[in-house]
Specification:
42% of the residues lie in helices and 20% in strands. By secondary structure, it is of the alpha/beta class. The structure holds adenosine-5'-diphosphate.
Length: 164
């Protein structure tokens, strides 16, 4: 079985993420959406909420599972899970500059390959950070996130700044 991982904090998951994950699902037998937590980072949504949103919005796609990544190395996570590829969406050359050393290091550490998928043109400008900034200032983000995520953003379910 060819298994890949799409890692990220998904705070929250948005249409650009979904498009890349769906394309990864077309290339691999199983795609693990690994939701990361960096304890130095302040999140808008808790780990449970970020995983729930990912599960809700990916439920209709076959071969995708959503899991917490834990706080260890991605290379080790891949080794333990029998994952042979990390799939990353690239929005720009700065994404590439950031990702290239990590891809090389992950390959050296555990043999895992990184597959880069160019972001769909409609979603090049999307980031969770920008979406959160727009929504906090009262802007309409309904074009950028799936419906269930929009509901949670509007409900402000998480209060401000979940820790995990
Ligand atoms: P981070 O872990 O840096 O917080 P995100 O959760 O925002 O990352 O995104 C996870 C991954 O999703 C990124 O590493 C990138 O591969 C991909 N991604 C993010 N935004 C987009 C987008 N607009 N189009 C395509 N892929 C994206």
């Amino acid at each position: 079985m060819r298994r890949a991982v799409c890692p990220g904090s998904f705070d929250p998951i948005h249409n650009g993420h979904l498009e890349v994950i769906a394309r990864a699902a077309g290339l691999f037998d199983e795609v693990v959406v690994a939701v990361s937590t960096n304890y130095a980072k302040k999140y808008r949504f808790s780990l449970e909420e970020r995983m729930d949103m990912a599960r809700e919005t990916l439920a209709s796609l076959q071969g995708i599972i959503v899991e917490p990544m834990g706080d260890g190395l991605l290379a080790e996570y891949c080794r333990h899970r029998g994952i042979s590829a990390i799939v990353k969406g690239l929005r720009s050359s700065s994404d590439f500059d950031y990702e290239l050393p990590m891809a090389t290091m992950n390959r050296q550490l555990s043999g895992v390959e990184t597959v880069f998928l160019p972001a769909e043109a409609h979603y090049l400008h999307l980031s969770s950070t920008l979406i959160k900034e727009i929504s906090v200032l009262g802007g309409d983000v309904s074009d950028f996130v799936p419906r269930s995520v929009l509901r949670r953003i509007l409900a402000g379910e998480s209060g401000s700044g979940a820790a995990t």
